[in-house]
Design a protein that fits this description.
Elongation Factor Tu (Ef-tu), domain 3, four-stranded antiparallel sheet, ten-stranded antiparallel sheet, 5 helices, OB fold (Dihydrolipoamide Acetyltransferase, E2P), conserved putative lor/sdh protein from methanococcus maripaludis s2 fold, about 400 residues, alpha+beta, single chain
Length: about 400
């Protein structure tokens, strides 16, 4: 049987094609919305836990540089020709070891002349003392005048002063002679020679060579002000803080250092406090000028309130917060965190020890005041796994 398609019937058919999907979508949307509303009205399951107190050793990190305890430029203290050196560049030298010899002849002559002058004035003083003794004896018998005694006394004192001055000049001449033999001021490693033998040197010639001590050594570094305060609170003015250093290879130096200097102000450019530690370096592994990773460790454990990082939201710029549960409803709490310990945040403020923090199922909490159902972690994980199947 053929159906005669009139214009009226065609219009009705087109209208049905357009209207039916719209009605279907609205009805299905309403039905789905109804069921979703019912589902949303049911409390979401979450796992809660109070903040945990963790006892840990406080640490702080920085970058340090190895420095010689003594780094001394050896200079000439008297003028003369540099005759000889008694070391090889890079050698380890000992305190008092002769490094250079300046031509000593004119200084030896000055010592000899000064010694002769001392002998001369010693003889004159001896004679003047004898004259004074005789004058004192004669004045008792009234054989000479008092002015003669006074003259003898003055002559004796004059020669005594001249002898003292001559002795001082002799001592100075000996000192200058000793300066012709230039010795190492400390135990240490000697550097590159700056002035070679044969040159005429003076005190203004500058450094002949540098000697740097190698044991012990300093490691200088700077500590951020907040790390400084934390470690200061957990130590006895840093006296008992352990200082560890690490090489570029990742290997740790086998001995701890001790802090021996803390600056009295914060560096305005870096906002940190300059500090320094001393290390024994008998093996010479710490080389002056080398950069090291520095780690400071508090002498005793400190207790901190912590929460898992995974249960926090936000960021360092806008701040962090957690969801807590009070009377079956979600409550947002803004928290201030500092360091992290084993994937946990240290909470400085914002939480109490009895707060019930949502640690699992945090994705189920979306708004303040939302009803939630507290469950144990095993039950929650079991339902989550069943939902995935």
């Amino acid at each position: 049987m053929k159906i005669k398609m009139t214009r009226k019937r065609l219009a009705i058919l087109v209208l049905l094609i357009i209207i039916v999907p719209i009605i279907y979508n609205k009805v299905s949307g309403a039905v789905m919305g109804y069921f979703m509303k019912i589902a949303m009205s049911k409390p979401k399951e979450v796992v809660v836990s109070p903040p945990v107190n963790q006892e840990v050793y406080l640490t702080a990190e920085s970058t340090g540089r190895v420095e010689a305890k003594y780094s001394i430029d050896v200079i000439a203290r008297v003028s003369g020709f540099l005759l000889k050196k008694y070391f090889k560049e890079g050698d380890f030298v000992h305190k008092g070891q002769t490094l250079f010899q300046i031509d000593p002849r004119e200084f030896q002559l000055e010592v000899n002349n000064s010694k002769a002058t001392v002998d001369q004035y010693s003889a004159l003083l001896k004679n003047a003392q004898q004259e004074l003794d005789r004058a004192n004896a004669l004045i008792k018998e009234d054989l000479i005048s008092r002015s003669d005694v006074d003259q003898s006394f003055a002559t004796r004192n004059q020669n005594s002063a001249l002898l003292d001055a001559a002795k001082q000049r002799l001592e100075l001449a000996k000192v200058n002679l000793s300066y012709t033999s230039i010795k190492s001021p400390v135990d240490g490693r000697i550097g590159k020679l700056n002035i070679t033998e044969g040159n005429y040197v003076t005190a203004n010639s500058g450094s002949l060579v540098n000697v740097s001590s190698v044991d012990p050594v300093y490691v200088s570094f700077s500590l951020k002000s907040d790390d400084f305060v934390k470690l200061l609170k957990s130590s006895d003015k840093f006296k008992d803080v352990k200082v560890k250093v690490q090489f570029d290879s990742g290997q740790w130096y086998d001995q701890d250092g001790k802090i021996d200097f803390v600056d009295n102000k914060i560096d305005q450019n870096s906002g940190s406090i300059p500090m320094r530690a001393t290390f024994d370096n008998k093996k010479g592994l710490l080389i002056p000028g080398d950069y090291m990773k520095v780690t400071l460790v508090s002498p005793k454990k400190v207790s901190f309130m912590t929460v898992p990082q995974s249960c926090t939201k936000g960021d360092a710029m806008s701040g962090y917060y957690v969801w807590t549960v009070v009377d079956g409803k979600s409550v947002r709490k803004d928290i201030k965190v500092s360091d992290d310990i084993d994937n946990n945040w240290i909470v400085e403020s914002g939480l109490n020890k009895n707060d019930q923090v949502v640690v699992t199922g945090i994705q189920n909490v979306t708004t303040e005041g939302q009803k939630v159902k507290i469950t144990d972690v095993d039950t929650y994980n079991k339902k989550q796994n069943e939902g995935k199947k």
